[in-house]
Specification:
The protein is of the alpha/beta class and about 425 residues long. It folds into 2 domains: about 280 residues, Mur-like, catalytic domain (UDP-N-acetylmuramoyl-L-alanine:D-glutamate ligase), CATH 3.40.1190; about 130 residues, Mur ligase, C-terminal domain (Protein-Tyrosine Phosphatase, Chain A), CATH 3.90.190. The chain is built from 16 helices and 17 strands. The chain has an 8-stranded mixed sheet, with helices on both faces. Its cofactor is Mg(2+). This is Dihydrofolate synthase/folylpolyglutamate synthase.
């Protein structure tokens, strides 16, 4: 690759540290100091951690804030098709020119000092947010919380912890309590924390840290409730009840994510109409996303195509539960996973529900699990399985066998990104 494009600079940044993940804040603090501490010059920050639901909660919160007339910055990860997706400035994805200039500046400030890709790009996002006027910053944790590169905000307007589940144990700990301790690391003294549904072990840890820091908790089941009634979402907190449309993001698991977003909006004093917009206007790709157009849809015109980037056991349960609510159709999974994931745990909920799994590699990922291994694990949990070279090849197999099938591409956000790129 030639030229000073954002992709070119990002490639250079990948070489600044031998590890992709190396959790510590030392390198981040060093670079932020060189940049003049942009993290101290931000609009009010909503900092969001959790195992599942961070991105969906952020998307609904953003939709509500923007509907109320606010300018909102947002930082999310990973990206699906292009890095630009990670940095949203006052509502718009960062432009190529702005991103290239920003990355150049941050790379020059860092020099050859060791720093991970996520750390240096997070510093770049914070610098961008400090320079563009906005009313709020929505900041999604990358991994964990306590030592995540985003955890540099001294006093956020609020923090959010979505459901904690087993994932990334090699970095965060083997038990739910240990993982919850890492997620709860974003809680700051005096800043309120909105907490989604948690198992008891995780909630105990979160409550203990909040109490130690004097951080007010707004917890599901105690301070707010969300449920469905007659095809509507009902949210209730201490200020009253909201009767709202169901979230635009499909899946019953989105009811709790919607509740967390609404709890944030209500705490910030956002009105009822904007809360309704949070449900109806939110968009978040690769979370039970229906693929209706593009080359893949043209390859299997009679099929019903879905895409989801979930990759841990809790996500498997949620996705399978949503599929069970859809009109009956033969269901096939096209699945690619990384070798760092609990593959059996993710796939087990689909046993007896899916006709077959077709295992594919995750394109461009060194840690992709070989399709033969994915297929072998699928067979062991009760899913008939075979392999294909690509997602498109897998879709062709299904289309020949059952043209009217429901096809879910799943197992990895990186696979989801590849599918979206392939689908234009």
């Amino acid at each position: 690759m030639t030229g000073n494009t954002s992709d070119h600079i990002l490639q250079r940044m990948m070489a600044l540290h031998p590890k992709i993940i190396d959790l510590t804040l030392d390198r981040v603090w060093r670079l932020l100091e060189k940049l003049g501490h942009p993290e101290r010059e931000l609009p009010p920050v909503i900092h969001i951690a959790g195992t599942n639901g961070k991105g969906s909660t952020l998307a609904m919160t953003r939709a509500g804030l923007e509907a109320a007339g606010n300018r909102v910055h947002a930082y999310t990860s990973p990206h699906l098709a292009r890095f630009h997706e990670r940095i949203r400035l006052a509502g718009d994805l960062i432009s190529e020119d702005a991103l290239t200039s920003l990355l150049d500046e941050v790379h020059a400030a860092n020099g050859s000092d060791p720093i991970t890709y996520f750390e240096i790009t997070t510093c770049a996002a914070l610098l961008a947010f400090s320079r563009e006027p906005a009313d709020y910053v929505l900041l999604e944790v990358g991994l964990g919380g306590r030592l995540d590169a985003t955890n540099v905000i001294e006093k956020p307007a609020a923090t959010v912890i979505t459901p904690v589940a087993l994932d990334h144990q090699q970095y965060l700990g083997e038990t739910l309590a240990e993982i919850a301790g890492e997620k709860a690391g974003i809680i700051k003294r005096g800043s309120p924390c909105i907490v989604g549904p948690q198992v008891e072990d995780a909630m105990d840890v979160i409550e203990a840290r909040a109490e130690r820091l004097g951080a007010p908790l707004l917890a599901r089941g105690q301070h707010w409730h969300s449920h469905t009634e007659h095809g509507r979402l009902v949210f209730q907190d201490e200020t009253g009840l909201l009767d709202l449309p169901m979230p635009a993001l499909p899946g019953l698991h989105q009811i709790d994510n919607a509740g967390a977003a609404l709890a944030v909006l209500r705490y910030l004093g956002i009105g009822d109409e904007a809360c309704e917009a949070a449900m109806t206007r939110a968009e978040w790709p690769a979370r039970m996303q229906r693929l209706r157009r593009g080359p893949l849809a043209e390859t299997a015109p009679a099929a019903e195509l879905w895409l989801d980037g979930g990759h841990n056991p809790a996500a498997g349960v949620a996705i399978a539960a949503h599929l069970a609510t859809l009109p009956e159709r033969p269901t096939y999974l096209v699945c690619g996973m990384l070798n760092t994931k609990d593959v059996a745990g993710f796939l087990a909920p689909f046993a007896g529900q899916a006709e077959r799994l077709i295992a594919v590699p995750v394109p461009g990922e060194a840690n992709t699990l070989a399709p033969e291994e994915t297929a072998g694990i699928a067979a062991r949990v009760g899913l008939p399985a075979e392999t294909a070279a690509t997602g498109l090849d897998a879709l062709r197999i299904v289309s020949r066998e059952r043209p009217d099938a429901r096809v879910l591409f799943c197992g990895s956000l990186y696979l989801a990104g590849a599918i979206l790129r392939e689908n234009g």
